[in-house]
Design goal:
Length: about 240
Amino acid sequence: MTVRTVLITGGNRGIGYAIAEEFVRRGDRVAVTSRSGMGGPEGALTVAADVTDAASVDAAFTQVEAELGPVEVVVANAGITKDTLLMRMAEEDFTSVLNTNLTGAFRVVKRASKGMLKARFGRVVLISSVVGLFGGAGQVNYSSSKSALVGMARSLTRELGARGITANVVAPGFIETEMTAALPEAQQAEYKKSIPAGRFASADEVAKVVAWIASDDAAYVSGAVIPVDGGLGMGH
């Protein structure tokens, strides 16, 4: 198996942390970003980066390239939510979520593409969400930012596909995280009723799909949206 240099944004908790652990387990050279520059899993290099600041993203890549080599796999995972109903949503609630989740992914992918184009190889993985295409009440900002990643991946595929670079979207559904664990049991049961699989996913189940889409086995998959949602969104 080829060892790659992998960078995951927002790799200090939740799905990003699990993705980083999976790449470490596979023997790759792994770096994660967090705003504090701390909190990544054992075996990974953790660097400080704020995806809303292009200079901060550039500095993080420069550090990773110096310590681990050019980034061959980039996973744009950093994201925030500011859920509220449309009528109550301030413009800042909308623009700040897009700035992190969508424009943040653009900044990261643009910086990663430099090395990928030079190497004529790259794997871009954008972490979306089932609500990107399925929708979610109170999530006009979040679902807009996550559905836009599909257009980004498909445009990247058309632009960079001939250079050995793939771009794909992984769209998780409900995942067992601190956030879902804090929900009242009745609410958890209600959510599970709407999921054909009848359960939440583990973060590891998402991580394994991300690792596969970044592997040599998936070299001919690009512009795809892969749902990891137990059938909740049915690919929509």
